[in-house]
Each structure stands twice: as C-alpha cells, then as structure tokens.
Amino acid sequence: MNLGERLKSCRKKSGYTQTYITEKLKIHRGSLSSYESGRRKPDYETLSRLADIYKVSVDYLLGRSTDERLNAEQDKQATEIGKKIEQLISKLSEQEQKKAWEQLEMYVQYQQTRGRK
C-alpha cells in the first residue's frame, strides 16, 4: 500500500469525509484528493497532522511500519528528523526539491528491502 492509499484508508477507517479533513487542516479539497490519489505528496507538517488526526504514526503512513501505533519518544524523534529534512530540502529550488524527495524515497525503500533480507 502506498502513501496515498494509506491516507485514504485511514480517513475511511476513521469515518471522516474529505471535507472534514480539509476543514480541519485548512487545505483545499483538491490537495487532499491529490495526496490520496498519489498525484502529490503532503509536506511533513501536513503529514504529521494527518497522522495525529488518524491516530497513527507517520512511519505507518509512509509505509515504513506495519504498526499504526508509535510511542511518544519515537514520535518526537521522528517529528524532529522530519522537520530537519524538510528545512534542508526547502532551501533548494523546486526542481531540486523534487529530486531530493525522490532520492530520499529511494533510500528509504532500499533500507527497507535490505532490512528484510
């Protein structure tokens, strides 16, 4: 399951409509629709807020964990790391940002497959 599918699944499991989520996050409905369809990826702050609303971990949404729950210390550490990564990438041009996110995703996927062996 990819990020978009997990976002949609969590929203439906929670019984929320797209309208409710977009009002809660103060984003356009088209943005949420794009996240759920996989056409766009939310920034880390939005992803973190979605995880809070759905009561799951960011790692779960990103597919790095099959366990929806996250303890407080892990959550704090993941949030700090995510913010630092986002701050670093935000200093790049839009094209460089896209490339950096793609590289980061490939690295995470590589680490996940390496850990399964």
From TrEMBL:
GO terms for MF: DNA binding
Keywords assigned: DNA-binding
PROSITE patterns noted in UniProt: HTH_CROC1 (PS50943)
Domain of life: Bacteria
Residues of the HTH cro/C1-type domain: 7-61
PANTHER family: HTH-TYPE TRANSCRIPTIONAL REGULATOR ANSR, TRACRIPTIONAL REGULATORY PROTEIN-RELATED-RELATED
Protein name: HTH cro/C1-type domain-containing protein
Organism per entry: Bacillus thuringiensis YBT-1518
